[in-house]
Specification:
Distance between the termini: 34 Å
Helix content: 10-25%
CATH architecture: Roll
Largest sheet: 7 strands, antiparallel
CATH class: Alpha Beta
CATH topology: Thiol Ester Dehydrase, Chain A
Number of helices: 2
Length: 154
Amino acid sequence: MTETETTTLGSADIMRVMDLLPHRYPFLLVDRIVEMNGDESCIGIKNVTINEPQFAGHFPTRPVMPGVMLIEGMAQTAGALCVSAKLGASRPKLVYFMTIDKVKFRKPVEPGDVVEYHMSKLRQRANMWWYRGEAKVAGKVVAEAELSAMLVTE
């Protein structure tokens, strides 16, 4: 990008997120997406609340959001970004989560936390997309991973 070019940042409220993704409650793990920069990067937001079904058993005396759900939230955020970038005649019907690499969990996420999924594109080839993500609470990394997704148009 040259100095004279500008980047237009987009966003997606919950209705737009549901238009981009097939997931629904209780498995939709992104409440909104902010700072969408084409298919390059974005930040997804998840408001963690005690009334979510996983907290009945994980764990009843100290509710902690399962780490796999943090990774799924990252994947959904990246998937919505990919689909948003491909709107039009070739709009994908589904996004399949393909790989997870370099996963690290740093800190527990609890009800009342606001998780930010910071996703950055590593590369894209044909219908495959690779992203690096960090889940953050109050600016601190709670989980990180590299993941890939495949867009399916048929």
